[in-house]
Amino acid sequence: MTPTATIALGTFRDPQGRLYRDGDRILREVFPEHAASAIAWLRSPLAQRWIEQGRMVPTQILSAESGHAALLEHDRILFPSYPWEWTPGQWVQAASLTLDLCEEALEDGLILKDATPLNILFSGPRPVFVDVLSFECRDPHSPLWIAYAQFIRTFLLPLCAYVHLGWPLAATMERRDGYVPADLAPYLPLLHRWRSPLRSLVTLPLLLEKKTHGGVQRPQVSEELSAFAIRRLLRSTRKTLHSLAPSARESRWSEYTQTAGHYKSSDHETKQAFVRSALESIRPARVLDVGANTGVYSRIAAESGANVVAWDTDVQAADLNWQIAQREKLPILPLIADFARPTPAVGWQNRESASLLNRAKGNFDCVLMLGVLHHLLVTDQIPLPAIFEQLGEISKRWVIIEWIPKEDSQFDELCRGRQGLYSYLSEKYFVQTLSRRFAVRDRRQLPNGRTLWLVEAIL
Amino acid sequence: MDNSARRITFLRKLYVTLAFSLIVLQTLAVLGAVEKPAYAYVDPGSGLLAFQILSTTFAGFIFILRRRVHTFFKGIIRGFKPKDEALDQK
User: How high is the ipTM of this complex?
Assistant: First the structure.
């Protein structure tokens, strides 16, 4: 359904068309019987307004001959992401956009027929609706929004499970169609089930499911009543969504920058000055910030004019990074992603949703890897040559990396008495290893003993 | 056994039969209510769709009620209007 899927495989579920990648281009074929209505919709003032506002993916009509399939081309999104990599705030924002578009479409006699997070990608911190064929003419006598159940399954129940049960949103990778009420019910305390919003999301639908397992009739009512009922439903669904907006929690890493005792303010200042001047000298268009935490260096990269993708494993830190980027309108896309354990390819034939590395390879001019190396070496036990090999595949040219000597207090703490295993990790070994793929362009030592390196790929 | 004694025995038997039938019916109803469907074959959206229909029905009631209240007050306001003004409007 999304351009992301085409990286590995064309889409095949949509009965109206298919999306595929042709080199660097994202193309969508609309089948002949649906072509005329799709073209009329894309040319409508509403669709054009959404594209101008950046809420729907810019789409060019390449061919639209009567009786033939139509061909569309979508603008590429810098880094396609999947819902299982989004922060809780991004989930709420994507759900909110879905409801907004559905409500606005009603004015033009249209309705959203697919309401899944897979129809949304993030461009920087902003959600963008990408499945342009998801709108259809509304039956003016039907008081139902047929995609309501899908919206609940794929947006609200995962959020509900995250907020009320602590299930990670990343677990949705295993559920293309989200959760059903029966998935959550056994884990909710009896009294808790009857509280709002669990009552309307889990308990009542589950009871009704037991009673209506033969199917239900679709009512037909007056146009006025139908519009009233759908608007009321969208309003109450939005209220439920807001009640599920997760409040910020403190995590292991969310307060890291303020509480990092091994960094004095002079260390922070020197580090930030080095990164800023390195970025200003190399001027990368696309930067990947690995282990971005709350995004201090992502923002420095964004200020230097780069589009930034920021990976971190900590949900709260990444969410904070996203909130700041959204508030300050910075071109930063924070994602929950692990350099050492990247998101796998999933879906049909393992080719529907591309892996994290597949999407990242050769996609960035510069990779920032600050304060991460010791975690990769010690906690994840990745050999240093393998780390540089991976960096060489992701970055087209530059890497800004922080070397943490084994004498560093944080390194020592991570070793947990196994210091002997890492005795070979000297700065000399670091330089020797990086020199196989990169050339050193700049180096700065911080007062705390750590060193910062600007290195360039050897072509 | 006289007639009245026979009638009492008949009524007692009828009462027992009725009470037994009611217990059986109640048990069946309870069993029916808690019968678990084969979940693999239940449309995962059916409960949510049924819930939507339920809330839409409620919205329908509100819609009709709102309209009636509106018509009622409109009627009262019209009733308060001076007759000549009402005639002018005609």
Answer: 0.70
